[in-house]
């Protein structure tokens, strides 16, 4: 599998300028940053959450973790991690675990952690485990213009800053 068709459509409709960065097969965002030789703070990962109302996506640096209590406070929703089987159904044009951050294009409320807005550039999954999209932060924020900005992430212990 290569870049998801949904992501391709989003990039095209926004006139985004980007480059594709290929890397050895990886299965976690920390592994992906290492394989691609990029700072983990600049790699955006997408975490899918759910509650009885439906699904929500959280986009944050790969070196951070979601603070559910912060998201609960900001959204008024008691969210929890979605099941892997749900990911396959919702993101049919993506490999499991390689979700691009443009979840609004999949009809999902999306929250973007403010820490990504302070990076000089951003990388993110293209829909598979061997390609990343790389773009300037301004381009990324334009692509993510329908996402709500919030503060809900914290750096994981033992993770260096970039």
Automatic annotation (TrEMBL):
It holds the Pfam family tRNA_edit. Coiled coil: none annotated. Residues 23-143 form the YbaK/aminoacyl-tRNA synthetase-associated domain. One of its GO terms (molecular function) is aminoacyl-tRNA deacylase activity. It comes from the Bacteria. This is YbaK/aminoacyl-tRNA synthetase-associated domain-containing protein. It comes from Paraburkholderia ribeironis.
């Amino acid at each position: 599998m290569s870049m998801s068709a949904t992501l391709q459509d989003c990039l095209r409709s926004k006139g985004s300028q980007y480059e594709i960065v290929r890397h050895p097969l990886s299965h976690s965002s920390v592994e992906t940053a290492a394989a691609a030789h990029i700072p983990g703070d600049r790699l955006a990962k997408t975490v899918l959450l759910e509650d009885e109302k439906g699904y929500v996506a959280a986009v944050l640096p790969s070196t951070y973790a979601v603070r559910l209590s912060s998201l609960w406070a900001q959204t008024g929703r008691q969210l929890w991690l979605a099941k892997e089987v749900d990911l396959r159904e919702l993101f049919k044009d993506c490999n499991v675990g390689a979700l691009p951050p443009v979840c609004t294009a999949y009809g999902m409320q999306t929250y973007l952690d403010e820490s990504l807005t302070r990076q000089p550039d951003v990388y993110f999954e293209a829909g598979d485990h061997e390609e990343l999209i790389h773009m300037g932060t301004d381009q990324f924020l334009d692509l993510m213009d329908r996402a709500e900005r919030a503060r809900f992430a914290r750096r994981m212990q033992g993770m260096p800053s970039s």
